[in-house]
Each structure stands twice: as C-alpha cells, then as structure tokens.
Amino acid sequence: MIKLTTLFIFCCSLLPITMQAQERITLQDGTVLNVFIKAPESAANQASPLVILMGGGPGNASISQDTSRWLGSGFAERGWMVAVPISPNNRSFRGGANNALIAELINELQKRDDVATGKVLLAGVSNGGMSALEIARRDPQNYFGVAAVPAISSSDTDNEALKGFPVYLRIGGSDQLNWADRFDETVTSLTDAGVVLDADVLDGAPHMFRMEWESLGSWLQEIQK
C-alpha cells in the first residue's frame, strides 16, 4: 500500500496544480464525506449523468484532489458530473463498510437538480478501480458500468454478479507494480463471469498513464445508449 501511494503521489506531482471545489456531504446515517465535485463545462441547465471516481492508494485528500484534476476533468469535458470522494479512514473504498458509503453518497448527490437520477458510472484508478468493481458487484443494476484504469481481479474473485455488465479496463504495459503480468488472469476472471469487457494493455505505459479518451469516450457513449 505504501509503495502504491508513493507512486501515485509522485506521478500526480508532475501535473499542473489547480484548485478543485470540495464539499462536505452528510449521508443519511450522519456520516460526513468530503468530496471533490467537478461540474460539466457545458451542462446547458440540464441534469448531468453522475460518475463516482475513486483515486488510488488510500484515497486520501491529496490523491483524490489529483484524481479530480487529472481524470475528472476529462469526464467533465464529456458531460459528466464528477464526484471524487475522500476516504474517511484512509483505506480507499474497498471492503463492505466503505463500499456502502458510495451508494449513500449517490443517493444524496442525486437529490440535486443538476445531477441526473438513474444509473451512475463507477470509475477508479488502481485501488479505486478495484473499489469500483467491488461496489458494482453489490448492485450492478444501479450502474452504467465500470471504468477501471487500472485494476486487477484474481482468479478466485467471484464476479458472477457482473454477468452482462460493461467494464472498461486498461493496464500499463510497463506498470511498476507488475500489474501487466496479471492482465491475462484479470481478463479471464472477468470474461469467465460473463462481463462485457473492453480491455487492453497500453504498450510502454506506467502504472499511472494518460487516458485514451478516444476509446474511453466511445465506450462511454455506448454504455449510455
């Protein structure tokens, strides 16, 4: 975990510094989540579809802010309302208790006039990508799909709940954590469960990589049809 967090912070430190809007969202049970919100650049006074985007490592404030700036901006440019939650306990959003917070966050955000109701997109980087897959397995019918950039899935992971579910997966070919070595295992784990998978290894790319917005953008349009 320490190695993963250090790598994420180093890569994000190469990005230009911009300020993001951070809000405190109170959930139904009283839990307060700090969330970076990025609105679409041209919403035209219409409710925008929501993407919950989760950062890597422990999902702390620094990582979540960098994720909002680096990846969230691309979603916002394509018409999505972006919410990047900060982990309340420095443990990302993996595991049952933290998973459940995301569903509650969605409920609160969809009460807003500028956020569309209905299905939501889950997206995540590294630990955030695996968090997104875990959350989707709980209630896949509530989500458009998962964009995991990157994530891995073990051969013993039960992905049966994701049968027919769209997943966009990218892993860097020169991933410093050797995740590319687990690409075939991950693909098999997902496809054997019936996942509708769009997966590829990006030649020469590190653990954190520049998004292929041409392919990801096409995938986003397809899952919204």
Distance between the amino and carboxyl termini: 37 Å
Strand content: 15-25%
* CATH architecture annotation name: 3-Layer(aba) Sandwich
Average pLDDT? 91
CATH class category label: Alpha Beta
- The poorly predicted ranges are 1-19
Largest sheet: 8 strands, mixed
Oligomerization: single chain
Query: What is the string of SSEs from the N terminus onward?
Result: HEEEHEHEHEEHEH
Number of strands: 8
Shape: globular
The gyration radius over C-alpha positions equals 16 Å
Short key terms for the protein model shown above:
single chain; alpha/beta; eight-stranded mixed sheet; disordered N terminus; 6 helices; 225 residues; 33% helix; Rossmann fold
In short:
The protein has 225 residues and is of the alpha/beta class.
Describe it.
Helix content is 33%, strand content 21%. With 225 residues, the protein is α/β, with parallel strands linked by helices. It has a single domain (2-223), classed as Alpha/Beta hydrolase fold, catalytic domain (Rossmann fold, 3-Layer(aba) Sandwich), CATH 3.40.50. It has an eight-stranded mixed beta sheet, with helices on both faces. Helix 4 links the parallel strand 5 (120-124) and strand 6. The longest helix is centred in the N-terminal third of the chain and has 17 residues, at 61-77. The chain starts with a helix and ends with a helix. Mean pLDDT is 91; it is low at 1-19.
